[in-house]
Amino acid sequence: MNLQAYLDIQPEIKAAVEAGKPVVALESTILSHGMPYPENLEFAAQVEKIIRDEGAVPATMAIINGRMKVGLTADELELMCKGEGVAKVSRRDLPILLATGGTGATTVATTMILASLAGIKIFATGGIGGVHRGAEVTMDISADLQELAHTPVAVVCAGAKMILDIGLTLEYLETMGVPVLGLDTDDFPSFYCRSSGFGVDYNAKTPAEAARIAKTKWDLGLAGGLLIGNPVPEEYAMDFNEMSAVIDKALASAKADGIKGKDTTPYLLAHIVEYTGGRSLATNIQLAYNNARAAARIAVEYARL
Ligand code: PSU
Ligand code: MN
Fold this sequence. Notes:
The protein is an alpha/beta fold. The protein has helices at about 10-20, 30, 40-55, 75-80, 95-100, 110-120, 135-140, 145-150, 165-175, 205-220, 240-255, 265-275, 280-305, and strands at about 5-10, 25, 55-65, 65-70, 85-90, 105, 120-125, 155, 180-185, 200-205, 225-230. The protein has a single domain, classed as Indigoidine synthase fold (3-Layer(aba) Sandwich), CATH 3.40.1790.10. Strands 1, 2, 3, 4, 5, 6, 7, 8, 9, 10 and 11 form an eleven-stranded mixed β-sheet that branches. The two termini are about 30 Å apart. Helix 6 (about 110-120) runs parallel beside helix 8 (about 145-150). It contains 13 helices and eleven strands. The longest helix has 26 residues, at about 280-305. Pseudouridine-5'-monophosphate binds near residues 142 and 191. Pseudouridine-5'-monophosphate (PSU) binds near residues 107, 262 and 269.
C-alpha cells in the first residue's frame, strides 16, 4: 500500500515518532462538532501548548482536501474550528472523503486510525462515543468502540457522557477485550462528573503504570487499544443530579426533533451547552486540558519503556 498517496505527517511529528519521542494524538471533531466557535480556537491552541509543556509533541488530525493530515498548521486548525463545510468523519466515511477530495473532522475512531498509521500510541480527547441510551431499539453504537477493539492506541478521556448508556458501553468494551483503566480513580468518570456509578477494571495510580499496562498489552500481541478514564478536576466538576436532568431534557428534545445517527452526538452536545448557559463548555474545556496533560505524561513514560 502506498500510504504517501493519502497521508501527510508533519515533519516534526514524523521525526519524533522515528526517534521514539513522546507524541500525543488529538481529534478534530471535538473542535468542529463538539465546541462553539470561537471558543474552540483558543482551546485548540492551548491544548497543544499543554502537551508541549509536558515534553511531548501534539498531533491534531483532520481530513483536508482528500488527504489525511497528522498535525495541522494554524490555518488548518482554524478551518476545523470554523467548521464550515467540515464533515464528521468516522471509519466508514474515511475512504469516501479521501476518494472525493473532501474535508472533515476526525472522530475518536478516525483519529485512532490516523494515529496508528503514523505510529502514535497515545491519544487525548474529551469523551468517547459509546452505546447510546435506547440502543436496544436504535442500534446506535459509536464506531469508537469497535476501533478500541481493533486499533492499538490508548485513549485518555474523561469517561463518557450520560447521553450514553455507560453500563452498556462498559459491557461492550469488556466483550471486545478493551482494558478500561482509571487514572488514580476506581470510578469510571462521566465527563462533567467525576464518577458514573460504574467502576473501572483497574486503578492505574500513575501515568507510568498506565503506560506499562499499554505496552504489556501490545507486547503480548493483543489487538486493539485501551481506554483510560481521567476524571475532571474537582473544581470544574458539575453536579451529577443537575447534569442528569439537563441530559434528559436534551435527549427528549432530540427525540422531538427526530435527530438520528451521526447528528445525535453533536445535537446533544450543543443543547447541553445551551441548557447550562455555557457552564458545561467551561467544564468541557478544562477536562480536555486535563486529559491532554495526562496523555502527555503517559506518552513521556511510554517513550522510556
Ligand atoms: N462525545 C463527547 N464529545 C465529543 C464527541 C463525543 O462528549 O466531541 C465526538 C467524538 O469525536 C466522538 C464522536 O468520537 O463524537 C462520536 O460520535 P458518534 O456517537 O456519532 O460515533
Ligand atoms: Mn451513532
